[in-house]
Each structure stands twice: as C-alpha cells, then as structure tokens.
Design goal:
This protein has ten helices and no strands. It is mainly alpha-helical.
C-alpha cells in the first residue's frame, strides 16, 4: 500500500510530495523483505515524480534501476518493462536527445505489439509517441502513417478518454503541416482541439504520454 501511495500522489498532481514520502516507503519495502516488484515500482514512481518536476537527470538513474530489477529479477516482465522504457524515451525527448528517444520508442512499439497485438490501444499510444519522435527527426511521412493508424485504432476503441485520441490527431496535424498540407492540417488540428476541450474541465495541453 505504501508504494501505491506514491502513485496516488503523482496522479493527484502533487509530485513535490514524493521526495518527502520516499524514505518512508523505502523503509516499508525493506520491512516487507525487499521484494523485487515493490522495489521496481518504488524506483519507477519516484522517477515519474522527478519527470513531472522537470528533474530529468534525477529521473533517469531511477528508471535505469527499475529496468534492471525488472530484467534481472522479474524475468523481464513485458508490460512493466515497456512502461519503464516508454518513460525513459519521454525523458530523452524532453532533454532533446531525439535519436535516443526514437530508439527507445521503437523498442516499446515492438514489445507491445508482440504482447498485445497490433490493434490494442496501448500499442496505439506507443505508435503515437514514436510518431512524435519521427516528426522531431524529420521523418514526416513515417509519422503521418503511424499516427493515422494510431488514430484509427483509438477511434474504434470504446470508452477511451478523449485526450488520448486528441494526441493522435495532434500528431497527424503536425505531420500534415510539416508536409505542407496546410488545409488538411488546419482541419485535423481543429478537430484535435475540439476533442481536447470536450474534457471537463478542458485540458490545459494535449498530453505526451
């Protein structure tokens, strides 16, 4: 329960509280015998808080620690590993290391497709992230195809939060704009904005997840 508390605090958008809570959670994990899954989750949730606070140089060692635990002690558990790799890719992109981010996102897409199949929403989220990274390196055609595919998958999935679909549309619109398709880009980006504003309260920005 202590480790989940860090997740709750992060979800409540109070990441600044995590460094204060972390020693208490670490002590609780030690009392429980240091099980590897709890240690991996502890490192990951601490890293997630550092990402939210913009402390990327502190986040990456924690992510590396979490990934090592998953690989060495949890038989490379597929979904936890992809979650960590995806966050590592986000950090690299935020730091401007677009080539490194691209390679990590490619790993996430490959792993998630192997586990979940090509048409799963989690694969679509990964495709969208990879598409955004492809835009960063000028691979506009690849990004457009990838994000259109992600958008179709998400549109066919019931019950998904609109921000997820809005993110895919944003990627498509950006690719269209960079390809010079300005009329199509305006239509797509207007749809993305409307979808984002349909959330109550409206989202401040489209998420990069």
């Amino acid at each position: 329960a202590w480790v989940e508390l860090l997740w709750v605090v992060n979800r409540a958008q109070r990441p600044e509280e995590v460094p204060t809570l972390a020693p208490l959670v670490t002590a609780a994990v030690e009392r429980a015998g240091n099980p590897p899954r709890l240690r991996a989750d502890l490192a990951f949730y601490q890293a997630a808080a550092m990402v939210e606070l913009g402390r990327y140089d502190q986040a990456m060692p924690l992510l590396t620690q979490a990934l090592a635990i998953v690989r060495d002690e949890l038989a490379d558990a597929p979904l936890p590993a992809t979650r960590i790799l995806n966050t590592m890719a986000n950090v690299e992109r935020y730091r401007g290391h677009v080539v490194e981010a691209l390679a990590l996102y490619e790993q996430v897409v490959t792993r998630r497709e192997a586990i979940l199949g090509p048409d799963h929403p989690e694969v679509a989220y990964a495709q969208e992230n990879l598409g955004q990274a492809e835009l960063d390196v000028g691979r506009d055609d690849d990004a457009l195809t990838r994000c259109q595919r992600a958008g179709r998958t998400l549109a066919a999935s019931n019950g998904l939060e609109p921000t997820r679909r809005a993110g895919a549309l944003l990627c498509v619109g950006q690719a269209q704009r960079q390809r010079g398709e300005l009329d199509a880009a305006e239509t797509t980006l207007t749809e993305a904005l409307a979808l984002g504003e349909s959330v109550k309260p409206p989202i401040a920005r489209l998420p990069y997840i």
